[in-house]
Structure formats: structure tokens, C-alpha cells
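Title: Comparing notes on inverse folding

I've been comparing how different people in this forum approach sequence design from structure. To keep things fair, I'm posting one structure and asking everyone to reply with a full sequence. Here's the target:
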């Protein structure tokens, strides 16, 4: 069993400004632990976490990939989250490049078709639309109508980001209509599977996995 990344450098007051690892984070870690053989075989040259927050998930994936030559990229629109991710990477002896940006701005078109592993714990909570898109901690959870506004904005970029062998993992909840998400991605040429699910209070969490359909 892989240990949870060391986040001891982050203090209680830090979590007033960045997303504190919670049930969705830990389900993501558990899913990646299940995927270790797949990820080792994938041997990604470039990985990307969108919305890295504390950097917990990136640090965990970095430990799975070990001493590979994978270029580990992260993005976050929140400047405090970007600094937290950098600190978490340092705390866990990892090299990570963090870009303070919205979703993949600055990544595309430069790395179009070159990223082997993309993962995203999006803002999926159902909120009024006006709460979506802030530069503060609310950006980590405010998902707008059906919790889908940021998810729907991001999905079209997947086919541009991923390499031919690439894989995309995403956290969703039942209210986000996972079957509808999978159908949209199918129309974009991706087959999907549910890697892991968990009940967290009233939320049913899913980890979805997408790969390109065989030609």
C-alpha cells in the first residue's frame, strides 16, 4: 500500500485558500493505486493534473511513476494552490512544473497530442452559475448547473491533449450525470470505464477512465 503524500508543510490556515484533501481526493488516490500496473505499463512521457490544489494527487501519482523521466505538469487558476502544489512536490522529493492558468491555457496547442496521462478532480458541486470561475478556493468546488459547467468546458480539450495511447481520469458525482458524460466522450471517440466508486455522505463519487477507441 502506497503512503499518502506528506502534506505536513501545509497549515490549517492554508486550507482557507486552497482545497483541503477530502473523500474525493482519497478515492482518487485509491483508484490510482488500483491502476499501478496499468500506469507502469503506460510509462507516460508527460502527465498533467488539471486543478492540482494542494498537490496531493500529483505527488501520489509521482510516487507511482517513480524515477521515470515523466514530465509532470499541473495547472491551477488559484495562485495559492499553485504555490501549495510546488511546496508539496518539494516536500515529497518530486519535480513538478506548475502553471497558474485556467484549465489548459498555455498547454494547448503547444503540447497537443503529446500528453499520455491527464487527471482532473473538477469543481463538481451543484451551485449557481455565478459562483463558477473564481480565482479563490471556491474555484475548487463550484460547478454551476448540474455541477457540470467546468466539466463541460473541459471535455472537448481531451481529444486535443491526449497522445494516441493517452488516458484521462476524472472524478464525478452522481448529480453530474456520469452516463451522459460517458456518452459525450464516446461521441468524441473515447471508450470509458468506472474505475472506482464510493459513497461519501450523500454523495456517490465515481472515478471515470477514458481511452481512445481502437481504430
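Reply #1:
Here's my take.
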Amino acid at each position: 500500500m502506497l503512503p499518502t503524500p506528506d502534506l505536513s508543510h501545509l497549515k490549517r490556515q492554508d486550507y482557507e485558500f486552497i482545497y483541503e484533501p477530502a473523500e474525493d481526493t482519497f478515492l482518487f488516490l485509491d483508484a490510482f493505486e488500483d491502476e499501478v500496473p496499468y500506469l507502469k505499463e503506460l510509462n507516460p512521457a508527460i502527465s498533467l493534473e488539471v486543478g492540482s490544489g494542494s498537490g496531493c494527487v500529483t505527488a501520489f501519482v509521482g510516487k507511482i511513476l517513480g524515477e521515470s523521466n515523466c514530465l509532470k505538469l499541473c495547472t491551477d487558476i488559484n495562485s495559492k494552490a499553485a504555490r501549495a502544489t510546488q511546496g508539496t512536490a518539494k516536500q515529497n522529493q518530486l519535480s513538478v512544473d506548475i502553471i497558474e492558468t485556467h484549465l489548459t491555457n498555455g498547454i494547448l496547442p503547444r503540447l497537443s497530442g503529446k500528453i499520455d496521462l491527464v487527471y482532473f478532480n473538477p469543481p463538481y458541486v451543484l451551485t449557481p452559475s455565478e459562483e463558477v470561475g473564481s480565482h479563490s478556493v471556491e474555484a475548487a468546488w463550484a460547478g454551476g448547473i448540474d455541477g457540470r459547467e467546468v466539466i463541460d468546458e473541459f471535455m472537448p480539450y481531451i481529444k486535443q491533449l491526449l497522445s494516441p495511447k493517452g488516458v484521462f481520469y476524472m472524478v464525478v458525482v452522481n448529480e453530474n450525470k456520469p452516463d451522459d458524460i460517458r456518452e459525450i466522450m464516446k461521441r468524441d471517440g473515447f471508450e470509458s470505464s468506472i474505475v472506482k466508486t464510493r459513497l461519501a455522505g450523500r454523495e456517490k463519487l465515481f472515478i471515470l477512465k477514458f481511452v481512445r477507441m481502437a481504430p
